[in-house]
């Protein structure tokens, strides 16, 4: 499966996981905690490539894991999409 096809399917997988209350495949609760901490360190918004790379690097995640966690948080109402295409976390360490 190509990277483009994989990325296209991740929102569906994340949505299903969020609806079912399940962690995405290959993601542990400790990964989500590390993601939250890393996202908070960059201001709780991920808009561009550099934002995602910073979160991935700090949390020790692959791109696929970071995208899966982002989609899970969107499905659970713990994040919101930004008008510019990015994502803002609104729960956990990023709660207002």
In short:
This protein has about 100 residues and is mainly α. The protein is built from four helices and three strands. A three-stranded antiparallel beta sheet has the order 1-3-2.
Explain the overall architecture.
There is one protein chain. With 96 residues, the protein is mainly alpha-helical. It is built from 4 helices and 3 strands, in the order ααβααββ. It is 57% helix and 8% strand. α1 runs parallel beside α4 and α2 crosses α3 (49-59). The longest helix is centred in the N-terminal third of the chain and has 18 residues, at 3-20. The mean pLDDT is 86.
Which blocks of ≥5 consecutive residues have pLDDT under 50?
none
Helicity range = 55-70%
Would you count the extended β strands for me?
3
The amount of beta strand, in percent, is 5-15%
The geometry reads as globular
The assembly state of the depicted protein chains is single chain
Structural class: mainly alpha
On the 0 to 100 scale, the average pLDDT is 86
Distance between the termini: 39 Å
Give the helix tally.
Answer: 4
Reported for the largest beta sheet, the result is:
3 strands, antiparallel
Helix-strand pattern: HHEHHEE
Strand order of the largest sheet: 1-3-2
**What radius of gyration results from the CA coordinates?**
12 Å
Count of domains: 1
